[in-house]
Structures are given as C-alpha cells and as structure tokens.
Amino acid sequence: MSIQKGRQHTIDFIFPLAVLFVFAVSAFTVLLLSAHVYADQTARTQSDYQAATPLSYIREKVRQNDQSGALSIGLIDGQTSLILQAEDTYTYIYSYEGYLKELYIRKDVDAHAKDGKNILEIKDFQIQELSGGLFRISCQTSDGTEQSVILSERSAS
Which residues have a Cβ under 8 Å from the Cβ of 152 and sit 6 or more positions away? Predict the structure, then answer.
C-alpha cells in the first residue's frame, strides 16, 4: 500500500498566512483603540477628581461647622473667602497664589492670606451668596475644568 502525496498548491501556504496576517492586524488595531480609550478615560477621571475634590472638601467643612449664622463671605488680604465661625475661632477658605487655602485662627488674631495651609492647586475660586444662607461655590482647576456646588446651612432651616 502506497501513500500518495498530493500536490502542494500555493494557496495551501498563502491562505493560512493571510488568516494569520488579518488576525494580527485586527488584534493590533483593537489594542491601539483600547489604549486610546483608556488614556482618554484616565485623563477625564483625573480632571473630574481635581475639580470635585476642592468642592467636596469645602462641603465637608461646612457640614462640620453647621451652626446657624456660622457661614459668611468676607475678605482676607483682598481675597474673597468663605468664613466658618465657631465660638472663638474663624476658618477661612480662599484662593491665594494658585492654591485653595485654609486658615484656622482665633478671633482675636489678625488673619493674613499667606499664613493659610495649602489644600489643593487651583486656578480660580469663586463664592457668591445667592440668598440668605444659600451659597454657590465654584472652583476651576489648573487644567481649566470648572465645577460648582450650592450649599446652605442646614441648621438655619
């Protein structure tokens, strides 16, 4: 019994090679697209985090110091500041030299903007009193992302 060997055709070599090539190109394309999507998502998440963190910090500070009449807007060395008043202390939250700063100080001591503690790097910080006890706080990060929040004293209601 003899085994016959069939003729080798060129297509027998080219077809598997073509399928392998199409698979490799497809896998590489998917890899490039997913890397681009991942980079965009990471940048967007970082930007949102940088914009939301100062507002979350301020929101928590307001809730910690929630007393009727404890929230006000004032100036510290010409910078608009959110002022949280306690019995014998003030907490100033303001923007100075590219940073969101916080200064915790006794009422009988002079406050200076340079003395505050750097919280986060920001580009702009705005505070507006919309009506009695209702405040809009806006923050713009160094990359230009801007977010705002509206806060009120809970104890005032």
Answer: 133, 134, 135
The structure's pTM equals 0.69
How many CB atoms sit inside 10 A of residue 109's CB?
11
Q: What is the mean pLDDT of the chain?
A: 86
Q: For residue 24, how many other CB atoms are within 10 A of its CB? A: 10
In the numeric block, the tokens 């998440």 are attached to 45
Query: Which one is predicted more confidently, 124 or 66?
Result: 124
CA atoms within 13 A on the CB side of 11: 1
Dihedral over Cα of 11, 12, 18, 23: its sign: positive
- Rounded CA-CA distance 62/117 in Å is 17
**pLDDT for residue 105 is more than 80:** yes
Quick one: tokens of 26? 């497809």
Most confident segment among 46-55, 59-68, 111-120, 132-141? 111-120
Q: From the CB of residue 147, how many other CB atoms can be counted at a distance below 10 Å?
A: 18
Length of the chain: 157
C-alpha span between 70 and 108 (Å, rounded) = 17
* CB 94 within 8 Å of CB 113: yes
